[in-house]
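Q: What does the assembly look like in three dimensions?
Context provided by user:
Components: four
Sequences:
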Amino acid sequence: MRREEAPSCGGELGAHSSGRRRELICVRSPGTSLSGALFTFDREATTTVTTLTMPAPVTLGEFDEIFESVKNWGRWGEEDERGTLNFITPDMVRAAAGLVRSGRQVTMAIPMNKTAGPDNPSPVVYHLVQGHDIAIGSGALTFASDFIGVEFHGDCHTHLDALCHISYKGLVYNGRPAQQVVTSRGATALDVTAYSNGLVGRGVLLDVPRYRGVRWLEPGEAVTRAELEAVEQAQGVRLGEGDIFVFRTGHHRRRLELGAWDNRYPPAGQGKAGLHVDTIGWMHERKIAAFLPDGDGETVPSNVEGILYPIHPLQVTAMGMFVSDSLQLEDLARACADEGRFEFMVVGLPLRLPGGTGSPWNPIAIF
Amino acid sequence: MRREEAPSCGGELGAHSSGRRRELICVRSPGTSLSGALFTFDREATTTVTTLTMPAPVTLGEFDEIFESVKNWGRWGEEDERGTLNFITPDMVRAAAGLVRSGRQVTMAIPMNKTAGPDNPSPVVYHLVQGHDIAIGSGALTFASDFIGVEFHGDCHTHLDALCHISYKGLVYNGRPAQQVVTSRGATALDVTAYSNGLVGRGVLLDVPRYRGVRWLEPGEAVTRAELEAVEQAQGVRLGEGDIFVFRTGHHRRRLELGAWDNRYPPAGQGKAGLHVDTIGWMHERKIAAFLPDGDGETVPSNVEGILYPIHPLQVTAMGMFVSDSLQLEDLARACADEGRFEFMVVGLPLRLPGGTGSPWNPIAIF
Amino acid sequence: MRREEAPSCGGELGAHSSGRRRELICVRSPGTSLSGALFTFDREATTTVTTLTMPAPVTLGEFDEIFESVKNWGRWGEEDERGTLNFITPDMVRAAAGLVRSGRQVTMAIPMNKTAGPDNPSPVVYHLVQGHDIAIGSGALTFASDFIGVEFHGDCHTHLDALCHISYKGLVYNGRPAQQVVTSRGATALDVTAYSNGLVGRGVLLDVPRYRGVRWLEPGEAVTRAELEAVEQAQGVRLGEGDIFVFRTGHHRRRLELGAWDNRYPPAGQGKAGLHVDTIGWMHERKIAAFLPDGDGETVPSNVEGILYPIHPLQVTAMGMFVSDSLQLEDLARACADEGRFEFMVVGLPLRLPGGTGSPWNPIAIF
Amino acid sequence: MRREEAPSCGGELGAHSSGRRRELICVRSPGTSLSGALFTFDREATTTVTTLTMPAPVTLGEFDEIFESVKNWGRWGEEDERGTLNFITPDMVRAAAGLVRSGRQVTMAIPMNKTAGPDNPSPVVYHLVQGHDIAIGSGALTFASDFIGVEFHGDCHTHLDALCHISYKGLVYNGRPAQQVVTSRGATALDVTAYSNGLVGRGVLLDVPRYRGVRWLEPGEAVTRAELEAVEQAQGVRLGEGDIFVFRTGHHRRRLELGAWDNRYPPAGQGKAGLHVDTIGWMHERKIAAFLPDGDGETVPSNVEGILYPIHPLQVTAMGMFVSDSLQLEDLARACADEGRFEFMVVGLPLRLPGGTGSPWNPIAIF
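A: Here is the predicted structure of the complete assembly.
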């Protein structure tokens, strides 16, 4: 006999809808069709025109060329385990703290989701361990405690990836053999404890749906380097060395409004919006330290022939980039609009988990 | 057939010993006995003299009086779920960020401990979910992922307590009925998501072993209000409204050097060092926002007759204080000595866990 | 980044389809309509005619009368924890063993299901703990080990219910207070260890779809006392004191052929086929010792006004009956047909789990 | 704040001590020393004399010869996954059922142990999922449910081993490559579902402590082929083709009376009593189908140079033997004495766990 289900604990729709909602206006220019359309986006925005080209397919050979061209192996020594976090200097941490003015703090995590669904095949295992019904031998005092279990590399669990998480051609970051680095009992190197002192730096949000004037990007849509640069220009920001790139596609907003969907490839799933592979070189040139997307940066179906998920190996394996997946950027997008700026201090703190290939986490922006 | 155990993944002794160790010098004045002794502590310290009085036993009646006198129920409204976090204003967040100068980041978490032991009866459940041996249908690309499960309110799991965690006489913070607030399926209110935007503020370390000139406090030793004030004076700091009180007894250092011990009451355990209950009034007057101790603040055996753990109900239930347990403050103590100051920015980020009575976490100090 | 899913490990369709399938023949008598139809069922069967009446709704008052009329509280003493297992005498165990002739063994469990789905919101948590890549310090020897975690009272996890599992009006079997018997840390009495020596006895399959000449009963269809007696007659068997009633609706066959569905009430779910409450008196009179259904015996929507799941409280709470849920009886149905008999030895062995409200298990029939 | 621990749920001392205890009498013959002693064992026993020789060390080369000599690879076909279970014919199942006379059922499992200890580094994870405080929308009806998680290949979790569990020189039973058979996501072949129809057969207890007239064998003591044959003779039984060998060293009795100990090699552990490797040939010649020991059959330290655990690879990898570990045979030993016979029907039922390297279980003897 199964329990009757209580309403999903993972749904934060109420929380969101209780916040105020900006009215987004989508004005399509006359005479344009939906694909390749010109968009103006919202009230405050200057009229911005961009052409949405179909992403050109990239061959596997070209993928390997990109891989080689952005490879940071050995850049910070053979023993390095911090990758692009090395771009963040103490001065940059101080400068990031200097961005704190209003004191507003904004979570970028999805509430942990205990309910199985199309993008949550491994729901969070959550149980009370002890309730307030249990006397502890101390007068009228009781302690309630609980257990949380999470297979955190899931499509709706906000988490980060350790550098051991991804291998390409049998190697992980810095050219180490993947199966030596990750054994059946966990990682022996390049685990998440390399990040135990936390991610602290200047975050910059590039809000693509805002730029396009849409509520969200549809599954399969890829954002190119050209568009990223156009978003920067429209927002009046520029990402540079040691910056934390916060990338919004509206994935989570779509989920809140239309319901969860399966992010995998057709026919099982419907895919997701993300980056075009041509953005990789841009991130490499700009010396981005960390990448915090809603969705996970991947466009599904991808733009690379024969590689289902090309962004992760280029970021994590080749560049040694600090990467997080499945953020919730709706609160942040509203906060940026309210605060009138797209830069802020970011702090993200992984669990100190020896051997871990990543960690669930709850990074925040501070304004 | 059980596996042969690999060396404990939880032990970070190597990490510690690879850092540089300050030489602590304990000079006992001639003619003094060990209890009630005079200590000078370390090279840089001015000679500080303090009398170590035995904590006077507090009766249950007196405990209840303290409880009433520090009760913040209703102070921030009947619906309040943030308790003493309300003391931290946006201005204080900005001021805390202003403390960031060197950019040094220091974890205050114990590495998550997967190995059962005297203070770890519920070791972290950690498993690989998938290794780099599994093809994902994408050329030479593989993803390693894992699972973490943790009963986090343990004596060697760094975690925080939600306000629903402790009840006294059937009530939790703000006077709500404990068994309605925490059901067998988790908390319905006052859960850890009240803290989802994180703890950000000015942290101040009061380093009692440093003050006393000892390596650590022994189990059963209680720190009184008078001694806290003496430590403040010796360190040249003062805790005030909205501050985060970081309290070091050397619990974790003792564990690293002597090995784990059972923190419970004799005869099962050996107890632990912590606060005397007379410090509660001091925290209340000072309007402390959060409390981050090694150990968990409790002195075992306690100073209160009939209450095994008096500090938690006074802090969490009566005051609605943001409380964390089982921090690792050894790295922080060294950093404070290196940086020559005992104040810093603190950021702590709980998992966004609906219903949770707390969360494992990894708070950091930024200098 | 989530893994690409391997094919579900829970699907045993291959196993089933590799067995031979009997051809079921449904011959509808001329001039009858589908509802209220007359069926003859299969080649071997004598022509059996039965009228399928709609189950009459039972009021809550009538439910309570049934509850009182079948209540076995105190029948085997105030301290009894075995309930209807007391009906099985040592002689009956010996007689059951005497049914073993061909030596054929048949599992009645569904393969443990690790894949979330409409009837599996809490999939089995399964992880390798250690693989054959880990040297154990013993030459060329390795041990692979794993972890299984299961929230076993689910609609597609084969399990049994301990007598503490169900409460009605605040009481569990034998009139004990439910919240004293089950605390937040597990059961203090009437737990599954009352059954640690196992269920052993004579099993009798009543195969309702076979009787009706259908592949399975549709969700919402209820089997009445009259029909059970007709099935007995058609099959040439009779259930009596101490017998184990194996009840087939074809639930699992429907799942294998049409796919999983949500068993809950509309609109969330589609319901399921099971018993009419008028069968409870029959089970009580016959002194049935244990009940092993596919589905879980409940008809959803139920025949009782105001009680979503009336069968369980009548069986478990009132009668103290040994009850299992979510069996897989397809292999058994074929075995019965092959062996030409509907009775067999049953052995079912719960895990010896102190405090457990039940256990996952894998009961078998031996012919 | 950790909970105060309730008394261990794993301890079944009460259950044992509530049963009656036979008085064991140890009469040493005059003039003998303790090692190499002559024993008479108990009141009913005829005087039996045996010489306890120190087990001769076996070289790695000799181990490999034994491995080759008992190898059943290919014996039942290249695709075979049942190994020595093939020895049990339907006739033997019927004959085993014929042993049921008194109807007495006896569990051979240790209660599942939720408390960490020297032989239980991975305690059972057990939590209530829902208690009787949760309304399910159905009047006065509530369901309590729970979760069990177990890393079951532990030294005090009663479990069985699938044939994929052990590899020697990179190969598992039938010569398959170990790392193909067990991936990081579970077994692809030779998993525990090969045993889903259960273990049913004639069990024979060889009770070595009873034979020796001691309460238990001490850690490090090995039982030789000669002693097994002497025990058979003394007990008046003989194991033959298709039999289930139940092997008692008194491991669990020692645990109940002296407390748990670490079973591993010195210096971490104290070892355990088990089989000498010279018994392997005996099991092979006798065509034993299954092996059910307390302890796990291994003598620690072992009798083989360079192999920490020689019994498992010989049984599981070479012979393809059905093997269980960590049984509790105290109830069985008493039952055999009461019933006046050492043979009985055995039924053991693994969970139907696809991919599993074994399963927790609760096998029983039926007299």
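Follow-up: The interface with chain A takes residues 1-4, 6, 125, 127-131, 134, 136-138, 143, 145, 147, 184 of chain D (CB under 8 Å).
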